[in-house]
Amino acid sequence: MRFDRRGFSLVELLVVVSIILIIAAIAIPNLMRSRMSANQASTVESLRVINTSEVAYSVTYTGYSPSLAALGPPPPGAAVTAAKAGLIDQQLAGGLKSGYIFTYTPTQLDANGQYRGYTINANPSQYNVTGVNYYYTDQSHVIRQNATQPASATDEAVAQ
Questions:
Q1: How many Å is the Cα radius of gyration of the chain?
Q2: Domain range holding 24?
Q3: How far is CA 134 from CA 3, 26, 109, in A?
Q4: Does 1 reside within a domain?
Q5: SS3 track for the chain
Q6: Per residue in 100-110, pLDDT tens?
């Protein structure tokens, strides 16, 4: 009798599976760090977009917007108005993008009912999963960060 010896032995398969598991154990944490870094970079860019949009909004409508939603796109077929200026995408106008929650607060209401300032906090939706830095910006357009708690106007500016 002759046995056909094509294929792999159980020991060979276990060695290959062990090697794959070791490589995965090394690669997965690096992948997660890369994902958090990408989320944080996207958040800083989103804050820049909001700051630029606020400048355009204030020139067009004589004051800053009352909310992020006011900077968002109008419904299909509708005209651009102060309530839906079409300056940022729908996802950002909703306050959640790239694993960060954006909290917008208009400030300094003047006698004409126009806002002369605003603050925005961007906090990770799941700390140490979607990001580890907290961000803040206001009408000065300086983006600030804090690694331990929600950022404020007194925190360090993000490197330009």
A1: 24
A2: 10-157
A3: 65, 27, 26
A4: no
A5: CCCCCCCCCHHHHHHHHHHHHHHHHHHHHHHHHHHHHHHHHHHHHHHHHHHHHHHHHHHHHCCECCCHHHHCCCCCCCCCCCCCCCCCCHHHHCCEECCEEEEEEEEEECCCCCEEEEEEEEEECCECCCECCEEEEECCCCCEEECCCCCCCCCEECCC
A6: 999 999 998 89
Domain count, the chain: 1
Kindly state the percentage of the chain with pLDDT values over 90. Answer: 76
Q: How far is CA 32 from CA 85, 113, 143, in A?
A: 36, 45, 24
| pLDDT tens column, 24-39 | 888 887 778 889 999 9
Whether 107 is covered by a domain: the verdict is: yes
